[in-house]
Amino acid sequence: MAEISFPLPDLGEGLIEATVLEWLVAEGEQVERNHPLVEVETTKSAVELPSPQAGKVLRIFGTPGDTIKVGDPLIVFEVPDDTAGIVGTVPKEEAPKRRVRLNAVLDED
Amino acid sequence: MGAHRDRLVEGVDPHLNVQVHEAAEGTTGPHRPVILLHGFASSAKLNWEDAGWVTALTQAGRRVVTVDLPGHGGSPSPEEMDAYSPSRIRADLLQLIQNAHVRPLKEGDDATGVDIIGYSLGARLAWEFGATQPELVRRMVLGGPAVHDPLADFDLPAAQRYLADGTPIEDPTTAELLRMATLVPSNDLYALLTMIEAIKIEPFVPSDAIPQMPLLLVAGEKDELAQSAPELARLGGKTELLWLPARTHANAITSRAFKNAAIDFLAG
């Protein structure tokens, strides 16, 4: 299994942080891509963020009332290795270069 | 013979930005559209798309129609004040419904009529529209509603002084409404102030015309602007009132409890 972390995305010009209103998923829950993840409020408006990823929610950051800065961790998913672009089990010590390259591709996703 | 489009309720097409979102594939729901009316200084995108309503409704099998009010979002900002008057906007809504070929409500036919969800100013417009168009509107959900339109109390001279030389605004509601109005770059501030002028001429008097269809009123418990929602609920005939714990006028809109209650109510 692989882990993929997503930060709080850029929510528009000038906005540097958002306050968590309510999480719509729980740790351990399996979610589909675009499933509503969390409601957050900025100085401008309240928004519902859809999931950028399908997978099992491993960890969520912030409880209602907490402020999260744009770019800080928001959620971590656990996804099967093949979903993450890795076919089969690649032992780290045997193919470190390949794994690094694939992770770099993932970050661009 | 002309298309519906050629028959204009008010003689002039306001070219409002109307978007239709079809029900998600594989879902089933009533075929009548849900019309979404956003609040002052907001837009269809902010109030309904970014807040997750369009996704929630289309996933629940509903066809959704959003419209940007004049001076808001992607709609034009005409110079004349009449374009912003609540009565004119209600006529524009009737036009929109006519253009969409909506047929009057018929018992047992879920493809007739419309449902409406309005927030804040959109709730006021919905109240008046539903009261005057009972043959078209089946059910309505009114969010952040009040018996009194806070825009009618907006201190326009104070706002203009503030915009001219930064003189602080004393009235907190005026200050907050202006703050909201200046935060959204797609909004035309001059147009928004013109809309306030027009609303002052036609303030909200909910007892003048009362919608008779079932209504769901929803407000945040900490919504300062909607504290009079129970009074409005008492005026309506078949009305339910739902309070959202800990929510304010600004952040009640994303509430999952609000969306679920609205979807259930409109399916009833």
End-to-end Cα distance of chain B: 38 Å
Tell me the count of domains of chain A.
1
Structure class of chain B = alpha/beta
Q: Could you say how many structural domains of chain B there are in total?
A: 1
Termini of chain A, distance in Å? 18 Å
Molecular structure report:
The complex is a heterodimer of chains A (109) and B (268). With 109 residues, chain A is mainly β. Chain A has one domain (2-108): OB fold (Dihydrolipoamide Acetyltransferase, E2P) (Beta Barrel). Helix content of chain A is 12%, strand content 39%. Chain A contains one helix and eight strands. Chain A has one helix at 96-108; strands at residues 2-7, 17-23, 30-31, 36-41, 46-50, 55-60, 67-69, 73-79. Chain A has a four-stranded antiparallel sheet, with no helix packed on it. A four-stranded antiparallel sheet of chain A has the order 5-4-2-7, with no helix packed on it. The longest helix of chain A has 13 residues, at 96-108. Chain A is elongated, with a radius of gyration of 15 Å. Chain B has 268 residues and is of the alpha/beta class. Chain B has one domain: Alpha/Beta hydrolase fold, catalytic domain (Rossmann fold, 3-Layer(aba) Sandwich), CATH 3.40.50. Chain B contains nine helices and seven strands. Chain B has helices spanning 44-49, 53-59, 86-99, 121-132, 156-165, 172-183, 189-201, 229-235, 256-267, and strands at residues 18-21, 34-37, 64-67, 114-119, 137-143, 215-220, 239-244. In chain B, strands 1-3-2-4-5-6-7 form a seven-stranded mixed sheet, sandwiched between helices. In chain B, strand 4 (114-119), helix 4 and strand 5 (137-143) form a beta-alpha-beta unit. In chain B, helix 3 (86-99) packs across helix 4. The mean pLDDT of chain B is 93. At the A-B interface, strand 4 and strand 5 of A face loops of B. Chain B: One of its GO terms (molecular function) is hydrolase activity. Chain B: This is Alpha/beta hydrolase.
